[in-house]
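Researcher: Please translate sequence to structure tokens.
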Amino acid sequence: MTRQDIGIDNFTLALVGTVTVATLLPARGAAAAFFDGATIFAIALLFFLHGAKLSRQAIVAGASHWRLHLTVFSATFILFPLLGIALKPLLSPLVTPELYLGVLFVCALPATVQSAIAFTSIARGNVPAAICSASASSFIGIFLTPLLAGVLMGAQMRPDGGSTADAIIKILVQLLLPFIAGQLARGWIGAWVDRNKGVLKFVDQGSILLVVYAAFSAAVLQGLWHQVPLRALAGVLLINAVLLTLVLLSTRSAARLLGFDRADEITTVFCGSKKSLASGVPMAKVLFAGHAVGVIVLPLMLFHQMQLMVCAVLAQKYAARREDLSVADGNAVASKRA
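Model: Translation complete:
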């Protein structure tokens, strides 16, 4: 089994490298100001291209399965936050207060688009429904995530005295407006974007790396690695594992209770258990002004990698099971004909 098979890809290595560079060579002064400006531009370009990429036909194709979408949205925006709150008395002593803020932020985020669709495809699930559900979650999260974060964290979210409403307005300007502009421009550039998916992937990953470098540079200068002992890092990994396990089991159980077929169960599991690094990192920069953002996004970065590794294995098991069922059905048909 290769490192790609368990979810450790080149981007993961690039994230580790970016954090290492930020630790050893953090951006200061004019360099820090430059990277702050560059991240704003890169994030706007990222959401513009995502808007241009999103196919209306794909949304229509999968939009009819409202029970599946409602189940996924409930897992993403209700189950995750409730678990974050319910588990806080038990699990927050394992980490620092700032790190548990990061855990609560993970719970408020929308689903990721690319990996949810990719794993659904590998596992032979309902891909059109996955495209619709994950894309809608990402769009709705632009509005809903700041509100959920405000409910989950309250005044702790804005120690600089800024209001949640101000943060929402900034997010709408930085994320939603470029997204809408991309949708409007799809008629002119959509075909080019579809043909050049590598460009979108480069912008997607590059913008995240820029924001991570800027955030961790600031956090390192504020004493990040003195504030986060190894014990707390281990605590974050444990908390993430508990969250992911509970949501995976819950989404699978919900799909079966609702009578979904295997393809829809796969879509529910993979779309309902994901949290978006691409949306989360730029949102954190706006929502947590006054905090060491590097500390806040650390649980998200670890959760992102954990969900990739776990779901890569899970997708292969689903795919193998479906292949076995197909072979068994073929053998049954052959025996009847004989």
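Researcher: Any highlights?
Model: The radius of gyration is 20 Å.
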